[in-house]
Recover the amino acids of this structure.
């Protein structure tokens, strides 16, 4: 087994764009939610404050250089960067384009097309969320345009590949009606420019447990935690997540908050609290599902999305760098022993408004990053998997 590649997901929403100014107010970035967070009960770790009050701006290439240097120092292989493409209308594209334009920045990376619609679900409280911008996945010319936009990234020597096939992550592929036709076109276009094809990975927990779609073009799925592990154990208990949505309150509400608020907000009345240790023990009990798709394990540092959702949010209680180090160390061993991959995804590099980040903060400093580095050092390539 090769050395483990630790790949945190990377959120680019730390610079202003006209669309966010219109939808959320002038000057909006993720820091607006982070700074406005309030503790909702005694001992609640809010607001989260970056170390030295580093509320950075991703318009500045020096910020990107700092992030990449820091990641490399602590053993991070590279970033899985969220990419927002709405039929040629892009959002938050600047950090990834800036990375491409600066080949001197030493970091590996890949694209995750976050192909969900954007809604006002963060603030909608008494009605169904309003769609702010949507996709038309059936536009076949758009498939060509999208591939051509991504091609310079695929050709970058820093771009993650497997067997000369650039990694292409799609967050919720089962939303795409003509999925296989689109992927076959992309594979053909990749081969026409000298690549072997593309390595396709799906990411969202909901995609993992929706059995209605054809996974045949995908090489991997991500156990995108903590949502994946909760869905897995709910399925084992035969709870029937969606048909019984209103019956099961706390854990189900959390699952539906994992990426975007799908549950009508009037049904959520109080903060959901879930045990960090129990969740991690469940993660460590996971074994790859034998469904023809290789699974990529996923760690999570913490979760608290109350900066976005306030009292309607969900919190994991008990997180700390010390616990994360213990659990991540075992996940590295599990990956070598049970999984057919050398990748571990991590939630997240900088999801500050959802409580998932490796970047240093005022409370724990570099604790979570140190946990990554120490775990990798404790499980070198030639160490026994036992």
């Amino acid at each position: 087994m090769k050395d483990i590649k630790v790949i945190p997901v990377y959120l680019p929403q730390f610079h202003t764009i006209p669309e966010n100014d219109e939808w959320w107010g002038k000057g909006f970035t993720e820091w607006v939610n982070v700074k406005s967070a309030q503790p909702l009960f005694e001992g609640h770790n809010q607001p989260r404050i970056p170390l030295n009050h580093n509320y950075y701006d991703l318009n500045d290439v020096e910020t990107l250089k700092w992030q990449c240097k820091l990641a490399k120092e602590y053993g991070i292989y590279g970033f899985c960067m969220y990419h927002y493409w709405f039929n040629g209308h892009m959002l938050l594209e600047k950090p990834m384009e800036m990375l491409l334009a600066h080949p001197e920045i030493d970091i590996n990376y890949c694209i995750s097309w976050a192909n969900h619609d954007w809604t006002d679900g963060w603030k909608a409280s008494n009605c169904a969320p309003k769609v702010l911008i949507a996709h038309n996945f059936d536009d076949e010319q758009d498939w060509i345009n999208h591939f051509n936009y991504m091609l310079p990234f695929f050709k970058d020597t820093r771009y993650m590949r497997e067997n000369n096939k650039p990694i292409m992550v799609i967050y919720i592929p089962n939303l795409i009606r003509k999925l296989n036709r689109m992927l076959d076109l992309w594979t053909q276009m990749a081969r026409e420019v000298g690549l072997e094809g593309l390595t396709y990975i799906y990411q969202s927990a909901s995609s993992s447990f929706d059995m209605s779609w054809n996974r045949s073009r995908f090489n991997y799925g991500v156990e995108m935690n903590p949502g994946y592990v909760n869905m897995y154990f709910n399925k084992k208990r035969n709870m029937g997540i969606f048909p019984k949505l209103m019956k099961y309150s706390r854990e189900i509400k959390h699952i539906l908050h994992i990426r975007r608020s799908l549950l009508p907000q009037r049904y959520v009345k109080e903060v959901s609290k879930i045990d960090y240790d129990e969740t991690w023990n469940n993660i460590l009990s996971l074994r790859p599902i034998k469904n023809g798709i290789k699974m990529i394990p996923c760690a999570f540092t913490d979760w608290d999305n109350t900066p976005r959702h306030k009292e309607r949010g969900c919190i994991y209680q008990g997180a700390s760098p010390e616990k994360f180090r213990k659990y991540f160390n075992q996940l590295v061993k599990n990956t070598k022993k049970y999984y057919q991959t050398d990748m571990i995804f991590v939630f997240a590099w900088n999801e500050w408004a959802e409580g998932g980040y490796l970047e240093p903060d005022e409370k724990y400093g570099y604790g979570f990053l140190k946990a990554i580095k120490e775990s990798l050092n404790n499980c070198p390539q030639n160490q026994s998997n036992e």
In short: The first helix runs from residue 18 to 24. The CA atoms of residues 33 and 206 lie 26 Å apart. Residues 239-268, 382-386 have pLDDT under 50 and may be disordered. The two ends are 14 Å apart (CA to CA).
